[in-house]
Amino acid sequence: MNIKVDNNKSVFKKVMEQISGIFFPILNLLTATSIMKSVVVLLATFGVLSETSGVYRLFYAVSDGFFYFLPCLLAITAAKQWKTDPFLSLLIPFAMLYPDITASLENGQTIDFLGLTIPSTIYHSSVIPVLLAIGLLHFVEKPCDKYIPEAIRGFTKPIICCIIVLPITFLLFGPMGSWIGDILTKIFFAIYEWNAVVAGAFMGFFMQPMVVIGAHWSVVPVSISNVANYGYDVIMPLVGGAVYGQAGAALAVGLMYKKNKEKKRLAYQASFTAALGVTEPALFGVNVPLLRPMIAACLSGAVGGAIAGFAGTRCTSFAFPSFLTCVAYYGPGFAMFLVSMALSFVLGFIFTMLQKKAIVKSLDDTEDNK
């Protein structure tokens, strides 16, 4: 894809640079909306705001709306990165998030497409499906621009691109995250029946990589169902360490930046929003592109998950783990749950700092020091 990179760099490093280029333009918005969402939820939790009030609804709409329509923003930044038509690129997430489509696919229904079944998939807030679709669009657009006469290219190219890209997106790219998530969820429950500590380590390690590919959405309905059917859930407590491992790793990376003040600031902000329970800025803006902090965060998350599994921590209402939602985890194992998050934060920081030499070298390769 048309991005200027050093040919001596590894393929993986080139891919990571492209991913960083896709997310960097929206990181400030990602951080801002994460903070807004956390604040309004916190105010509602303590009764300062009513969830039916106009203030809550408007600010929750703009903050949650950013994440809901994230595929549209990624289509724009990916189009710029991979030299596709930005307006044509937007047609893909428009279809993914069209109300009739989401009403069916996100509620467990399937859609028949020429005898093929489009499986139930959650597309809002997703990342990988739209990026794969724009990547495919890059290669579909090229022959269209080369072989379609200019006189009819303006309207025929979008039609041809949609005919090719949309079915592949809905039949293959979209369901990939759900398939992987379903497999990992089944593995988790099999391990949990055998040993809760090992299951906690498993979920603590894999949960944030699942967020990266959108596979975590397959876990959410299981957790919600557990609360509804049994009055508690054992999955969410195990991922608290994973969240705070990301926060600790992002903080360590922020301390490593010396010249690029903007990326240092973004790393600090990402650490803060992860502590609020929103890890996307830390994942896509800091840890995933550098890889080593991501591995450090996953390892620390595994430690935290193992501790929560050992303690038998439960949540009595569905809530993604953070210090803002601790009330949902109050009960047996609550103290150890807090310990799991705190220790994962510290370990994420330490494990990342132990790799400082290699990470700093990577920062020097990628940061803009102008």
Strand proportion, as a percent range, falls in under 5%
Radius of gyration: 21 Å
> Strand order across the biggest sheet?
1-2
H-E order? HHHHHHEEHHHHHHHHHH
Q: What structural class should be given to the helix and strand makeup?
A: mainly alpha
Cα distance, first to last residue?
Answer: 25 Å
The portion of residues assigned to helices is over 70%
Number of helices: 16
The main β sheet shows up as:
2 strands, antiparallel
Give the uncertain stretches in residue-range form.
1-7
Account of the 3D structure:
It is a single chain. The protein contains 16 helices and two strands. The protein has 370 residues and is mainly alpha-helical. Helix 13 crosses helix 14. The chain is globular, with a radius of gyration of 21 Å.
In summary, what is this structure?
The protein is mainly alpha-helical and 370 residues long. The chain has helices at 11-23, 27-45, 54-68, 70-82, 86-96, 99-105, 128-147, 150-194, 196-213, 220-230, 240-256, 261-275, 280-290, 292-311, 334-353, 356-366, and strands at residues 111-113, 116-118. It has 16 helices and 2 strands.
